[in-house]
Here is the input.
Amino acid sequence: MKLTSRMVWALIVANVNLATFTRAAACGGNLTAPSGGPVTSPNYPGYYGNNKNCEWLITVQVGLAIRLTFDSFHLKDGDFLTIYNGASDTASQFHRLTGQRTVRPIYSTSNVMFLRFTSDWYSTGR
Here is the structure.
C-alpha cells in the first residue's frame, strides 16, 4: 500500500504587503523576503523523496519578524518539519511537527527563522 502525504506551508512577513518572494531550490536554501510568499515541501504537489534533509534559512529586514502560517499540514509518520527561532539548529526549537493537523501561525522573535524538513526511508509522500 502506498502512503500519501502532503505538506504545504507559507511564509508571510509581518507588516509588509505580499508581492514577490525569492524562491530557493526544491530542497532547502536561503530565502529572503522583502515582501512575503509561499514555501512548499520538496517537489510539491508531487511526492517528496525518502531520506530527505532539507533546510531553509528565512531572513527578513532587521527590525521585522516572520509569521509562518500553514494553509495545510499533512506528513506521514516518521517525517518532520522542525522550526527554530534563529539562524540554525542551535537556536531554540519552536516546534517539531508531524502528522496531519491544524497549525496556528508561528512568530519569530527576530528577523531569522530556520526550518528543517526530514523524511524517513520508508515511503514517500506529498
Summary: The two ends are 15 Å apart (CA to CA). Residues 1-25 have pLDDT under 50 and may be disordered. The chain has no helices and nine strands. Strands lie at 6-13, 29-32, 37-40, 53-59, 66-74, 80-84, 93-97, 106-107, 112-118.
